Known about the structure:
Blueprint: H1 4-34, H2 44-61, H3 87-105, H4 112-133, E1 142-143, H5 146-152, E2 161-164, E3 168-174, E4 180-186, H6 191-206, E5 215-221, E6 224-230, H7 237-241, H8 253-272, E7 277-279, E8 288-290, E9 296-298, E10 305-307, E11 313-315, H9 327-332, E12 334-336, H10 337-353, E13 358-360, E14 366-368, H11 369-379, H12 396-409, H13 420-427, H14 435-440, H15 442-451, H16 460-478
Parallel strand pairs: 1-5
Antiparallel strand pairs: 2-3, 3-4, 4-6, 5-6, 7-10, 8-9, 11-12, 13-14
Amino acid sequence: MSNPSHIHLEAAKRVLREAANCGSNLLLKQNMRQQGNSSSNVDEKNHGKSMIYFIKVIYFVFSVKGVFLPANTKTEPHPPKNGIWNLEVFLSVIFEAGPRVIRELAVSLSFKSFFQLQLQELAFFSFAFSHRVNKSREYPWEIYTLKKLLHATNNFHNDNKIGEGGFGRVYCGRTSEGVEIAVKRLKAISVKVETEFAVEVEILGRVRHKNLLGLRGFYVGGDERLIVYDYMPNHSLITHLHGQLAADCLLDWPRRLRIAIGSAEGLAYLHHEVKPHIIHRDIKASNVLLDTNFEAKVADFGFAKLIPDGVTHMTTRVKGTLGYLAPEYAMWGKVSKSCDVYSFGILLLEIVSAKKPLEKLPGGVKRDIVQWVTPFVQKGAYDHIADPRLKGKFDRAQLKSAVAIALRCTDSNPDNRPSMLEVVEWLKGGVRRRRKSVTKIEDMVEKEDGDNDETFYDFEGFRMAQSDLRRKRARSKKI
């Protein structure tokens, strides 16, 4: 008797080959049309319908474990009600044949949102199984069952709800093994929801860093899309700055600095160590979670973008949170690493001051946190910037340093903003002694020499670089 899994595999391979052939023919058609050759009789519309059909087949073949598509099936299959995905077999097919199919189908993204959704999920599942096959200690995540997650969260009881965002709710829970987890339950399935799910799981599956929220696994089935994370007992940064824990003032000055440095290190890892590089696009206080020791964990990668080497920026639809968006991104959709740097600068000001990024003034006028802080900086009134709940228990020099760094990050010109690597170094109290670093601050030194204004850049990293520059000037005069 034939093995059902084997029949699954062979039938789906045939379907994938046919889908790839359709994609190849469509690509040929488009190339010939671009070259002005009208001799092709390929019916593009029929190819589009065929490709959508084949994608449906791939999905429905694996709807229920043990149910398979016979080789001679000609009628369109229908997904069984309350079906459970045979993921291991499905992913094995996608992993083996998926990359070619994805390449061939990428030429036909004009087939509206349904087809875009199918292509996206193919890419996601191809990624997912490739990591499961090569699973190591570096990627310790799993494909959960719905039963296990329902048991862990008490059937997603409202008492277990710890947060809610634009795409879904987050619940805390405990597995039968005693492991505390957080589960994001995405809202009703749509293209946007599927996009966030696919992007977030793919990004979290790629990265591993002490300051990024860890992925434990996920579940896909029916109308459910669930992402499982490490549980963060101290909740989010926004809870301590503006929420239910703000009055307790659990964030003393050393903790705030540690949170700022940790968040910066997580972003620097995304920007400079991961290949392809990752732009988060939604850095804000609610997306910085805190573990037992109040160490920062950057979270929520639903809006993230992968940036290949050599690409400096991309133009895309604007997503994110008002108050944190870089001007060039908010106005023109131009996204780059500098956009994350700008958002981090806003976050840094928020950490030290506990002011919201955007506040409404009488008369309906809105003022951002940079506009609020600038007059105090110009007057040197840093005590008015610090969170009053600190009651003066902060290092004034460190506060000035943090504010100066934040203002560099929020420069309206993205070319003038530092990289996250530089931000990490400055926050830790040092700048690399390189000519590039010295050159960047030359105009600042001249400004300081001219008007004796030391309110903006009075922190150790800049002082070291300024000393280097002055010594070089002195040597050049002697020569």
